[in-house]
Amino acid sequence: MIIEQKHIFFHVGTSKTGSTFLQNRVFPHLKNVEYIPTNRYKKVHDIIQHSKSNKILVSREFDRQFEREVTLFSNNFKNVTPIIVFRKHNEYLASQYRRFIKNGFRGTIRDFLDLEKDQGFFKIKHFTYEEQILFLDSVFKNKPVVLFYDQLKNSPKDFVFTITNILNCSIDINKVKLSRKHTSYNDKQLKAVRFFGKYFNLKKRRVFHNSVLHLLWRFYHAIFRYGILYIALLLPKSMFNQRPLIDSEYLKKVGDYFEEDWQKCLKNEKIFN
Predict the structure, then answer these.
(1) CA pair distance 20, 30, nearest whole angstrom
(2) Cβ neighbours of residue 230 under 8 Å, at least 6 residues apart?
(3) Pick from 192, 196, 199, 183: nearest CA to 237
(4) What are phi and psi of 106, to 5 degrees?
(5) Which strand (E) or helix (H) includes residue 84?
(6) Which fold has domain 3-88+124-181?
(7) Which residues have CB under 8 Å from 244's CB, separation 6+?
(8) I want to staple 142 with a disulfide (CB 3.0 to 4.6 A). Which of 81, 135, 160, 239 is the partner?
(9) For residue 252, what are the CA distances in angstroms to 90, 129, 202?
């Protein structure tokens, strides 16, 4: 079948909006649609090209690399309906910051997202949802589908059926585990990672080009990092800075800063859905 005749649904994330839940627990159980999992994404062009299905679902999880990766995908495929999930900006910031602290980020939340000078690890554009919606609309043939993390969090079953309605497919809901996968690491654990990160580089990175050595390195690195997370449970709180890991006043400031963007995003749900 010619690629242009195939209808591709491209779930682009974003990060920390339930993507792992969807990829592991929901998408594999969808019927009447071919799902290409994340571990096969590198070969996505060949898979789609040789697929006999006329309806294909691809899923990834983007944040800072959003525009680059979407552009690369759109260079090969146009008959695409992108699907994107958003959560409130302040919640998104807190969740992303905790994730990156766990993975070796050493700075404060203001270093992570700088509203004043826009010199943070994440830029303001990475948090501007309307621009992301318009960008998806500009590079693909079909309008983006905009969904919200709150629905997934509060009514996961309804969210799953929303997905099946969008894809015009079905699912045996009894095969879907709707419970939460795991709880987040607590502040003391994340403070410990940030503390030891001052002396050891805990960031995920490639050190060796050789695949075997890289795998061994990742294994060693993960043991070291997760070792800190779990040993921290035994350490006294007094070892670490007593200030909150996340400045609640700054979170409120972020929420206020992006409130207009959030409202526009909510309105776009009816336009693009």
Answers:
(1) 15
(2) 189
(3) 192
(4) -105, -15
(5) strand 80-86
(6) Rossmann fold (3.40.50)
(7) 187
(8) 81
(9) 7, 18, 29
Cα–Cα distance measured from residue 22 to residue 152, given in angstroms and rounded to the nearest whole number? 10
| Mode of pairing for the β-strands spanning 7-13 and 55-62 | parallel
How long, in residues, is the chain?
A: 273
14 and 66 Cβ atoms separated by less than 8 Å: yes
118: part of which helix (H) or strand (E)? none
- Whole-model pTM: value is 0.89
Tokens in use for 101? Answer: 């602290």
Number of helices followed by number of strands (H, E) in the chain: 12, 7
Q: What are phi and psi of 120, to 5 degrees?
A: -80, 175
3 state SS of 57 = strand
Is the predicted pLDDT of residue 112 greater than 60, yes or no? yes
> At CA 66, angle to CA 58 and CA 84, rounded to 5?
55
Calpha distance 252→254 (Å, rounded): 5
- Residue 107 CA to residue 97 CA, distance in Å, equals 10
* Domain ranges across the chain: 3-88+124-181, 187-242
Cα pseudo-dihedral 212, 15, 225, 223, rounded to 10? -40
